[in-house]
Design goal:
Layout lengths: L6 E7 L5 H15 L6 E7 L11 H9 L13 H6 L2 E4 L2 H11 L8 E4 L19 H21 L2
Parallel strand pairs: 1-2, 1-3, 3-4
Helix pairs in contact: 1-5, 2-5
Pfam family, one: LMWPc
Organism: Scophthalmus maximus (Turbot)
GO molecular function, one term: non-membrane spanning protein tyrosine phosphatase activity
Length: about 160
């Protein structure tokens, strides 16, 4: 459980191989550089079962490497426990949001605040589009959005 001294965030997208592992890696690096990573529990997960056990998309990995952001993750699906043990569940688009709100209804007295990661974007781009069928450029755009949003989210929670 998240204690008073620890904060926690779970980043969520459809498959947990593109957007959410990028957000997780970006946030972990920022928290590390800010000297607060020990205070955070940071993870990512999927609303779907499509990619369980798979590593992040190679294009996302290449993008992270270009920006010197370490990324290691194995895709998993959101569990009922996540709604109790994470303070924040931040997702990428409206379909993730409605799926998470639907799942949360089956968890009695759940604790998590379920929000769009994009709601923290100073440039007000609320939706982080899935780059899976896109190009390297689309992964770059996801990275930039995650950087802006994670920075604002960290500032709001420090």
């Amino acid at each position: 459980m998240a204690g008073s001294s620890s904060k926690s965030v779970l980043f969520v997208c459809l498959g947990n191989i593109c957007r959410s592992p990028i957000a997780e890696a970006v946030f972990r690096k920022m928290a590390t550089e800010a000297g607060v990573v020990d205070k955070w529990r940071i993870d990512s997960a999927a609303t779907s079962t499509y990619e369980i056990g798979n590593p992040p998309d190679h294009r996302g990995q290449a993008c992270m490497k270009r920006h010197s952001v370490p990324m290691r993750h194995e895709a998993r699906q959101v569990t009922k426990d996540d709604f109790m043990s994470f303070e924040y569940i931040l997702c990428m688009d409206e379909s993730n949001l409605s799926e998470l709100n639907r799942k949360a209804k089956s968890v009695k007295n759940y604790q998590a605040k379920i929000e769009l990661l994009g709601s923290y974007d100073p440039q007000k781009q609320r939706i982080i589009q899935d780059p899976y069928y896109g190009s390297d450029e689309d992964f770059g755009k996801v990275y930039e959005q995650c950087v802006r949003c994670c920075k604002a989210f960290l500032e709001a929670n420090s």
